[in-house]
Write a structure and sequence with these properties.
Length: about 270
């Protein structure tokens, strides 16, 4: 069992991040617990995000001053650098498919197309600009929730792979493959524990900021489910990445908005 867990850990980080990992054997048993470790990549992303924000606040006191825009760009790039852009790729492919207004079958074909269309490029550009705007307004209060959001988004994404209908048959995509090979009962329990603990921690740390961020994640999760079923007949790896990107942006935007509005109302 320990060997399977260790290999699942390595596969999770090798597949969903660019963090160097020892070689792993990609056998079916070794991928059984990949989704248990998937949220931990969000933990690394959140920790680096918090650290960069800490430097932004700490360095001026030491006489080292950078323009705020410099740190905003760094914060936007952190998730892409750590993940290698794998989830953004899914976001872009999904935007192309949704913009095609084709049948479910044609949309699934577009998801598999390695070429980026015009709508993918435009959507990515708009997404990053909105992200930059949101991150430019981060504060000590909201950044704590944002750092934890990377864990929650991956927990929800992992649960969707196990709980939602698959658009493709076993072996025809990453989501279907991981869903089929997972020790579903165990992984569901682990991710369920993550979900409960993270929601409690986010609300404890962020108060009303955390509450509104979780509410935003819940709304995006419902949208993700309905869109996946109605437009694609189920989820794929690209759609899971699409959700993850929307979830992280929505949680960050909700955190910043709740922080600003809360201060205005004296909360």
């Amino acid at each position: 069992m320990a060997g399977y867990l260790w290999n699942s850990f390595k596969i999770a980080f090798a597949m969903y991040s660019r963090i160097p990992m020892p070689r792993a054997e990609w056998e079916k048993k070794n991928t059984s617990f990949v989704m248990c470790f998937f949220p931990l990549i969000g933990g690394v992303t959140g920790l680096v995000t918090w650290f960069v924000f800490f430097l932004k606040e700490w360095l001026p006191g030491k006489g080292i001053v950078f323009d705020d825009f410099f740190f905003t760009v760094l914060l936007v790039l952190i998730p892409i650098v750590i993940t290698g852009g794998i989830h953004m790729d899914g976001f872009m492919d999904t935007q192309d498919a949704l913009a095609s207004w084709q049948s479910k079958e044609k949309r699934l074909e577009i998801l598999k197309d390695s070429h980026a269309g015009a709508f993918a490029v435009l959507s990515c550009s708009v997404y990053l600009q909105i992200y930059a705007g949101v991150y430019s307004a981060l504060t000590k209060n909201s950044v704590k929730v944002v750092a934890l959001s990377f864990l929650l988004s991956r927990t929800l994404s992992g649960l969707s792979v196990l709980l939602f209908p698959q658009a493709r048959k076993e072996g025809e995509g990453l989501a279907a493959s991981f869903s089929a090979s997972a020790e579903k009962k165990t992984v569901k329990i682990v991710l369920g524990i993550y979900l409960i603990v993270l929601c409690a921690v986010i609300i404890t740390v962020g108060g009303h900021i955390g509450f509104f961020s979780i509410a935003a994640a819940a709304l995006i999760y419902i949208y993700y489910y309905r869109t996946s079923i109605n437009k694609f007949g189920g989820i794929t790896g690209d759609l899971a990445g699409y959700f993850l990107q929307l979830c992280e942006l929505s949680m960050a935007a909700a955190a910043v908005a709740a922080d600003v509005i809360g201060k205005g109302l004296g909360i």
